[in-house]
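#struct-pred

JT: dropping the chains for the assembly here, can someone run the whole complex?
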Amino acid sequence: MKTNQPTKSYVADTPWLDREASPFIQIKNLSKNFDGTPAVANIDLNIYQGELFTILGGSGCGKSTLLRMLAGFETPSEGQIIIDSKDMAGIPAYDRPVNMMFQSYAVFPHMTVAQNISYGLKKDGIEKSQIKNQVNEMLELVQLSALGKRKPHQLSGGQRQRVALARALIKKPKVLLLDEPLAALDKKLREQTQFELMNLQYELGITFVVVTHDQEEAMTLSSRVAVMNEGRFIQIGTPSQVYESPNNKFVADFFGTINFFNATVQNANQDSKVLRATLEKTGTELDAKFDGNIHTGDQITIAVRPEKISITKNNPEGENLTITKGVVEDLAYYGNRSIYRIRSQSGRIIQVSAQNFARSEQLALEWDDEVYLSWNSSCNVVLTE
Amino acid sequence: MNTSHATNEVIKPLNMNFQDAMWRKFITYLPYLWLLLFFLAPFIIVLKISFATPIVAQPPFTELFDLDSDTSRWWLASWENYQFLTEDNLYWVSYFKSIKVAFISTIICLLIGYPMAYGIARATPIKRNILLMLVILPFWTSFLLRVYAWMGLLGKNGIVNSALMHIGIIDSPLQLLYTDMAVYLGIVYTYIPFMILPLYANLEKMDTSLHDAAADLGARPWQVFINITLPLSIPGILAGSLLVFIPAIGEYVIPALLGGLDSLMIGRTLYDEFFVNRDWPLASAVATILLLILVIPIMLFQRSQRDKPQS
Amino acid sequence: MNKSSRFVFSSLCFGFAFLYVPILVLVVYSFNQSAITSVWGGFSLRWYFALFDNEQIIDAALLSVRIAAVSATFATILGTMAGLALAQMGRYRGRLLFTGLIAAPLVMPEVITGLSLLLMFVSLQELVGWPMSRGASTITIAHITFSMAYVAVIVQSRLSSMDQSLQEAAMDLGGRPIQVAFDITFPLIAPSMLSGWLLAFTLSLDDLVIASFTSGAGASTLPMIIFSKIKLGVTPDINALATIIIGIVGLGITIASWIMLRQNKNKENG
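RK: done, full complex below.
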């Protein structure tokens, strides 16, 4: 198969920005209640043909329920699911153009690999000779050619996953649903499988909808990510959008680490959409771009990623810089980078992550050193909730 | 077509075809109908007949009402069977005896069965399977014959007496058979697998890291047992005890073969009323009262099964 | 071995001795020349020969086996359906009552089930003319009724420990519910269905009380014959019968275990 690198750029394809494009999957006001408690609450979502869309959230957020409603295993309490312009209401799982790869793989233990893969085709009533050819093609695609006659208990976890994948893909579904596809794999296999999935998806052009709790997985795989919590979507965007421009603290904190600062707005320019704020206690002034309704005097949160912050021994004094002072509280050396915990003048801990490239300033930091923290003001993310 | 349901009811997709819907109905309701007809309805009939009067006829009881005869005597149902039960001492004694015997047998089964279940659960997987098989094996051989085996052992000419006389402990054979002790022995012997299996299922599933944690915190082995193992095994104890207690109350064969005539258990009383005295209505009344006594334990049993079905 | 292990070990020994000594005694004395158990008259097979001459016993045995086979089969079918319904059909009307109806036969005293079924058959006869007479068929119906509860519990337990996504995967791939049942569910619960069948067979073969109630003239099952004989006391030909039965059961279990071991070995070698 292909090499372990994605062969195309995904960013170039952005159908969700094209006003003419009609979404392949439309979810309108979808809700699901169990015994009165909502698992999924009034969800709206458009997914476009060819996307690798990820739904990301912790356990209990409703993502699995949403996936199961797409597959047809749960009936919505409210709302509609439309796939390829066809309303899925009342259509059972076995009649939908959707196939699923289950978290446990659900490979039939009493059938061989080949029998597993051909199951869907048999149910469609396809001729035996045709089935045989397609099964062999599939086996090649997932690199299991020699194992057609084996039984599942003779295969490794990764191999079983490929069987599950082949079994679903052979039906040429319009949508493939994947439930935590990388969860059961060890680290190396996970990376390899990640790229393989992406390549497969691009080659076959099938719309993938992935459900996962792993934020790294979500960021590397997806064309777009939807962050879900308590049955609702908090933010939907490309990986870089949700990482760099989270629209609230929940999303900001979900991906990696982030520093939060409480600040008061001194001046909010509604035309240029730039505001000036002071951080509480330290009084450090900063500029930041903002969206929406923010006025002078508002209390806001400024969020800054650790890798955007530079540590220097002297005041860097530059344009468009936000600068504050602090004392080194803790440091951890990771080889390629170091993580510093700096106690600022307000008493708060600021986390800074720095690559250990060749030091031009002889920056060898020790505990209790006094340092300057600076970052480009464009890195200030304004959050109101 | 949107479906709005507030509960987790199984909502059939609206256009499930006729075949699939029929399949569901078939699977769900056929066994249900069978049990309603051949298990539940019979109890109602027992209740009905308990109000009838025995006559020499086929079938040997009257109808509850006879619309043809003259109006002053058309209601033939009566409480006289129940009255008889409350008046005649024999029945009170039988009911209490049955409960007492079942209760004591259950306790003995527990005392013998718990260590056995514990030992099996603690054994290595291979030994465990062998031991389990050994516990289940007698169960597959005829229960009647195993009770019969005890008749041979306990009789005046039986092995136990012969051995004891041979050794010289006694001079003349003891009356072992046809005693209460023989009944206890028989019940415990027959029902002990029913105590061991649920207990074993419970103990085997128990998280042994709890024991390790307790030991780590300084608990001695017997303390670990009392404070951790025992409380956690209560569901198993309950299931096993009910599996012994409830059927033992109404047991017929064991008291009939091994028990004496001095005080009868209710199973025997019922059987005799029915087959010997041919008094079907009275037997029905006996059965109804027995059922009433058992309703609460049976509900308890059903509750315990609901949470964890055990095979 | 520390004190508690010694206690457990000795109770295991005592327990198993308790279980098996009576059986061993039965077997040994079936070969006793003398008719009195306490006196050993030498090794002899006379009681076995007596058995084979006894037409009554042989007829009863054949009848019992026939009833057992039929009732086990129907009990397995109905019990599997019940197990499926309980494990997989979610909530439906009357489900609570149904779970009660399945749990109750497991503990109900046999005299009650026997009496109630007999009265049921009598009433049915009055109402609709069937059953005309009681005998093998009524006994079979009775046995099916209580055995199906055992099968249901076994199947339900197996189903609840089975990965539910297997059936969902089959549906997802285009299998309709009936197809999924035959393609996936039944193959996977087949061992449980077999255990259920064997259990139902044994329960039927062994039943005395219910058969006594629901039988009629001319239909005597093996337990009924045995019971009428042993009521009067120990008879050595019954010892011989017991030994034969024990032998068959022991053989059956040994073969079954051997087959299971072979299967496991095959699984590992692939």
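JT: nice. The interface with chain A takes residues 1-8, 11, 13-16 of chain B (CB under 8 Å). Chain B has a mean pLDDT of 80.
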